[in-house]
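Example 3.2
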Amino acid sequence: MGGALAFPQFGMIKAAPDEAEDGVMTTPVRKGDLQVTVTETGTLDSARNAILTCQVEGSTTIISIVPEGTFVKEGDIVCELDSSALVDRETTQKISLTQAEALLSQAQENVEIQKTQNESDVAAAELKLSLALLDLRKFEEGEFLQQVNELSGAVTLARENLSRAEESQAFVKRMAQKGYRSQNDLEAERIAVTKAEIDLKVAEEKLKVLKDFTYVRTLEELQANAKEFEREIQRVKRKSVAALSQKQAELSKCELTFKVEKDKYERIVKQIEACTIRAPQDGQVVWANARDPRRSDAPVIEEGAVVRERQAIINLPDYDAMKVNARIHESRISLIKTGLPVRVRIDAYAGEVFAGVVDTVSSVPLSNSSFSRGDVKEYEASVRLTDAVEKVNKLRPGLSANIEIIVAELSDVLLAPVQAIVTIGRDQYAWVRSGDQYERRTVKIGRTNERQIEIKEGLADGEKVVMNPRTLFAKEVGQLENELAKKEAEQSTEGGPRRPGGPRGMGGERRGPGGPEGADGSSPMIPGGPGLPGQRGAGESGRPQGGRPDASQFEAGRARPQNEGTAGTRGPADFPVETKPAEAGAKSSENRLAPALPLPAATK
């Protein structure tokens, strides 16, 4: 069921020449300049409003305060708070700080002592290792060789002694055979030989023990000593690191303790300094007393009053820089951005216009904006006045102001009255007087204000459009809405995708979809502008207060002219309709035309 909807044909009745005078109001569309503005109300405030608060922890008492209304200079004392308890705390804390400082100094010395002790212990261990390596080398290259030479010499000498003893024995034996020597001499020689043999064997055994056992044992012992001293160096180094880490940990603890005590002391000193409040800028002293009559428990600022931490004591506005705080309705927040020029009118200065510029725009709605106004969301915006100081400083905070934000200025565009455009679904229509009959045109609209709307396609310069089409052609408009409702109902029954919004009866609460969308889903009137709620039934027209349609609602193709809302009529934005925009001028015959309707009885 896509495409354009089929509408019934109505009878063709030629308009009488005097019908325009009798009831059908028409006006030609003309090219001109369009100024798109957003109008809101707000309240004046100082742009540099210094709020002096109590910075003392807990609560304290006001000893003295400058009288309200006094003009002060920057640096002047405006209030003094009781600091007697803080002075006592300062003395006690100073003692704690001194003790912590002494412990810190001792811990620092202990670290330096431990570092020196570690160096000595490591040096002693390294010396032992050097001596052990030297003993090993001395044994291998000196003592062992010396002992081997000594024992080898002893073996050689024993062999020589044995050889001489054997020769002497042989000589005595020959002499004894000849009778020259006695048997006792021969026995003495034999004993001498035996003794020489024993001495040789002992010398050879000593040399063998030295080479086979003493050398190996001594070498292994010296090597083990060297390795042990190497391990001793590692142990000493690790013990040194552990001892130093312990001392450093104690130092860190003392440093942290000192820092905590110092911070406490400095905080108390700052608290004492905070008891003397000075003016941060020039201005007039205003006591921060709550001026809400509904609050009976509001704190009072005066001498002797008790104030708590962060409680405001004095407001110090600077009248040379003023601003207007305003609330922007959610339907128009997409139009507002910083830097836009603003015209400001102050109720107290009627007829005088002040210049300003949008300074800030909140990105989130006010949390209390929907408390008393249902589901309406508002965003806070600030307008900074840019006039000369001489003109601005006569203003005072709290004055009511009206701001007119200039969103855009369009030159030489085709313009039509906003009430001449009827929105049905996603399409906009205008009824054009063509000769002696009226035809319905699909138009493409652009930006708008509260009175005029830009026509991009569908109408030509000079063509006359009906001013109140929803009243004069109520039957045709109702038929269009009924057909659209029927189409959506069929799509819903078939399980097709349901479009946002939907039909409603009298006083219905359902909202329709956004205005006509471009290729990217945004409003063609306002790039990125969101769709607005559809109109409501009787008693909830959806129009902003003030008697005029909301400019941004027309811009999204939603608003109904002031004189055309009827109870029980569905809002024109409730049902989307797919139609093709008609060409203007010579191509008007290609438009989707609706034959002229018979005029209401009152106009015939």
